[in-house]
Amino acid sequence: MAFTSEQLQRYSRHFVLQEIGVAGQKKLLSSKVLVIGAGALGSAAMMYLAAAGVGRIGIADDDRVDLSNLQRQVIHSTETLGMEKVESAAAFISRLNPDVETVLYHERMNADNIEETIADYDFIIDATDRFPSKFLINDACVLAGKPYVHAGIVKFQGQVMTYVPGNGPCLRCLLPEVPEDDGTMTCAQAGVLGAAVGVLGSIQAVEAVKYLLGIGQLLTGRVLYFDGLNMEFREMEAEAEADCPVCGRQKTICSVKENRADYEVLTCG
Q1: Sign, Cα dihedral of 243, 246, 250, 256
Q2: Given the DSSP bridges, would you call strands 56-60 and 232-237 parallel, antiparallel or unpaired?
Q3: Which of 34, 66, 113, 142 is in the most buried spot, having the most CB atoms within 10 Å?
Q4: Is the pTM of this model over 0.85?
Q5: Is the confidence at residue 269, as pLDDT, over 50?
């Protein structure tokens, strides 16, 4: 493909990076990333993926924009209150970068639709905020051999890790069973600093770009913890567990449909 004069200017800071250059930008423009969750994490991730020129961004969310979202979900605005979040996010992306195609899924990901939805994408971003949804994404990606980046945050603290098939642990290697989700640790009940969520969503976008281009060191085999209140980062090494129920040698989870009871709690708006 030949770049237009507008693209040469738009991506000029990428062209001068040895790790990206012309070939890398072409690869980004032909890449497909699915963002599950068009809330706070998804806002930051989608903005930077679109700005980077990722050619197709899938957006999955069943919610609508609410005034309480705008403190942290910065891809939305006062003008899009009441609009489907996928439509609001797509409108922002279109204004930011017309090179990017958006594919919208105004539905909650569940055991019946996630396998078909993730099948056509190169990389998945988990931008949800409830454990059952995170384990659904983990299990579906592991079983389908799809790379993805996990992140979660409450108040000022959160964590990020990347799963690549055959390279490092998945979420269930760290937590074999879905923790009891009583609603007390969601953004609505515990609170969250919007800018802190943006840090983690931006890191998810960085991980996606690095994976797509095959550059740098991903957060595989390690979990990055972020404490925005004290402005601290720390890492914990993590290993794939031989007895992991979904990626281990003798896995017990072979289908998300058969394991649907783990994923029944609804995601937070």
Answers
A1: positive
A2: unpaired
A3: 34
A4: yes
A5: no
**247 part of the active site:** no
Out of 129-138, 179-188, 260-269, pick the least confident: 179-188
Catalytic residue among 187, 244, 254, 268: 187
Q: What is the C-alpha separation between 246 and 174, in angstroms, rounded?
A: 12
Give the burial class of 155: count Cβ atoms within 10 A of its Cβ; 0-12 exposed, 13-18 middle, 19 or more buried: middle
Q: What is the pLDDT of residues 171-224, one digit of tens each?
A: 999 999 988 754 545 656 689 999 999 999 999 999 999 999 999 999 999 999
CB-based contacts of 85: which residues, under 8 Å, 6+ apart? 38, 39, 59, 61, 63, 64, 65, 73, 76
pLDDT confidence tier of residue 13, bands split at 50, 70 and 90: very high
Alpha-carbon gap, residue 139 to 254, rounded angstroms: 9
Judge contact between 107 and 38, C-beta under 8 A.
no
What whole-number distance in Å separates Cα of residue 25 and Cα of residue 12?
10
Q: Are 224 and 217 in contact (CB under 8 A)?
A: no
Q: What per-residue confidence (pLDDT) applies to 181?
A: 57
Residue 62 sits at the vertex; the CA angle it makes with 123 and 90, to the nearest 5 degrees, is 60
Q: How confident is the model at residue 144, as a pLDDT?
A: 98
In the chain the beta strands, taken as DSSP E runs, fall at 32-36, 56-60, 101-105, 123-126, 148-154, 157-163, 222-227, 232-237
What was the pLDDT predicted at 267? 39
The residue-averaged pLDDT of 50-77 equals: 98
| Residue 250 burial class via C-beta count within 10 angstroms: exposed 0-12, middle 13-18, buried 19 and up | exposed
- C-alpha–C-alpha distance, residues 24 and 38, integer Å: 26
What contacts 107, CB < 8 A, 6 or more positions away?
60, 62, 113
